Amino acid sequence: MIGSLRGVLIAKAPPRLLLEVGGVGYEVEAPMSTFYTLPPVGQALQLLTHLVVRDDAHVLYGFATETERRLFRDLIRVTGVGPKLALTILSGTTVDAFTRCVLAQDAAMLTKIPGVGRKTAERLLVEMRDRLQAAVEAAGGEPGGAEGALPAAGAEAEALSALVALGYKPVEASRLLRGVRAPGASTEELIRGALQSAAREA
């Protein structure tokens, strides 16, 4: 998996850009939220990336922030939402606005994004609510408030992702982490504490 690229921006034509890294040009697709932050052509650039492997192509997606990439990864896990639609959603709204919309269960607002119909909006509300709620709680924010965005990359956010990957539901993972939250705790310490807590409850 290619996790990030650092190089020189050679060309940009939404949704694609060309980033030269060590003499190799990487074609990357990115949401408009990332394009708004790009430097002029010819300047240095670093992007966080996600590689999607298809039968007919390997497509690299690039993001300016970890919150954008995390939301993209969550979106493509939703039934009926592929990388193209996930990119459209990220281009049509901000991470903060999308989070508030889902937590408020506002399907009408989601359908204003190009490509998102009523059924897709309803699936997004159902399948994304627990993930976003858990992420907000892990960040110590309030749903729908000024802090209601996905947490920035950090030990607690990484621990939450790891627990979900291990099979815990997002809300349950968030609850376990709240019980072991401690200033300066590392990702490994948080995961270990959460798993120990879960074992005691079993």
Enumerate the strands of the largest sheet in spatial order, edge to edge or round the barrel: 1-2-3-5-4
**Contiguous runs where pLDDT drops below 50 for at least 5 residues:** 143-153
Strand content: 15-25%
List how many beta strands DSSP finds. 5
Q: Indicate the percent of residues in helices.
A: 40-55%
Query: What is the annotated CATH architecture of the largest domain?
Result: Orthogonal Bundle
- The name of the CATH superfamily of the largest domain reads 5' to 3' exonuclease, C-terminal subdomain
What's the level 1 CATH class of the largest domain?
Answer: Mainly Alpha
Largest sheet: 5 strands, mixed, barrel
* Assembly state of the chains shown: single chain
Distance between the termini: 35 Å
On the 0 to 100 scale, the average pLDDT is 85
Reading the helices and strands in chain order gives: EEEHEEHHHHHHHH
Named CATH topology of the largest domain: DNA polymerase, domain 1
Large-scale geometry: globular
Question: So how many helices?
Answer: 9
Q: Provide the domain count.
A: 3
Q: Pairing-aware structural class of the strands and helices?
A: alpha+beta
Alpha-carbon Rg, integer:
18 Å
